[in-house]
Amino acid sequence: MTLRHRFWLLTGLRWLSTGLLLPVYALLPLDRGLSIAELGAVVAVQGIVVLLLELPTGGFADSLGRKSPVVASAVFALASYGMFAFADSLGWFMAASALAGVFRALDSGPLNAWYVDETIAAGGRETVAAGISGAGTVVGLSLALGAVAGGGLVAWHPIAALDALATPFLAAAALTLVQITATLLLMREDRDARAGRLLASLRQTPRNIVDGARIVAGNRVLRALLAVGLFLGFGMVGFEQFMPIRLAELLGRADLAGTMMGPVSAAAWGISAAGAAAVPLLLRRWSLPAVAVALVAIQGATVVVMGLAAGPLGLIAAFCATYAVHSAFGAVYETMLHGEVDGGHRATVLSLASMVLQPAGSLGAVVLGLLATGASTGLALVVAGIVLGLAAPLFLVKAKPAGATAEPAVEPAAASGT
């Protein structure tokens, strides 16, 4: 099995469990008595935990290796899924969300950084964008398959003693055990003299964090890309968290919405996978920044349309249109990040990007939750779409002329898609 195929397989296993939860993640807490505003607080806990742990976990991945954080993230995911399945109060849901925050912090970067490092080491720098966009396709297909299975589990309700909406969480936990096994078998890396030296790696972690922050401070393209995360984190809450809630409102039944969100999410992520597969074709004609601007502007507009839709069919159509560009945009954005940093600090910078994204998502969850509670979910979606579209100009920031500041950490060719 080639490096790229191993990367895609591990990526698929990682996101298949998330796909199982798409139809029910927002509906389960509401079904167990939480308000929309309280759901926003639950989501915010995850972002706060990520904010606190992103840099240490990213620096650790750059110091010790990529494999250990990937395995550890899956262990925390397993604990989070189990707690979500049985949580019955705001406090328990917050605790489950905190575990998810640890999982997300450990998960943000090491697998992709491993693939990019190994690809560059093998002399395949020019194929990085294709591998990342291919992973985006795998993510979309995995989420689509998982969403179908999750919705099917809700409709089937195989465990009578457990709420139907909780069943996908237990299935995700079982699948995570498979992911851990596959990671241990397939994720191979050579960390040279650093491998196995845990204490030395822990001592190196703070230095990697400082170096990563210094790289960002001296690179205005990276600063702009990280600032994009402020708008993305806030805006993505709209279509990720409020779609099932809005659909339940329009249908008048939470259980029907949970069942429908399976095939709806599957269709959306299938379309998203096709969009990610088209990224190499787009980059043959246009530059990375131009494609990023177009995709994020389109996505913001479609989220606004979700908020304005007056019926379930219009909402579903706008949701699918949103996801048509979602994975493609994510692949382009990540490729631009990789193009500005070297392998020694790759996971740290990816963690910085996630560190910005997650707290912004927490803010979005709280603000949009209050808007949905005090006004309507439609207004919350409109605001989310507008904020998302405001990220577009940041992709046009260019590096300073040679000699004005330090050069990017890798050659510009890696960021140009050539």
Let me know the CATH homologous superfamily: MFS general substrate transporter like domains
Overall number of strands: 0
Helix content: over 70%
Termini gap = 26 Å
Q: Per CATH, what is the topology? A: Growth Hormone, Chain: A
- Count of discrete structural domains: 1
CATH architecture: Up-down Bundle
For the sheet with most strands, the description reads:
none
Q: What structural category do the secondary elements indicate?
A: mainly alpha
Task: Produce a short descriptive summary.
This protein is mainly α and 418 residues long.
For this entry, give a set of tags.
single chain, 418 residues, mainly alpha, Growth Hormone, Chain: A, 78% helix, globular, disordered C terminus
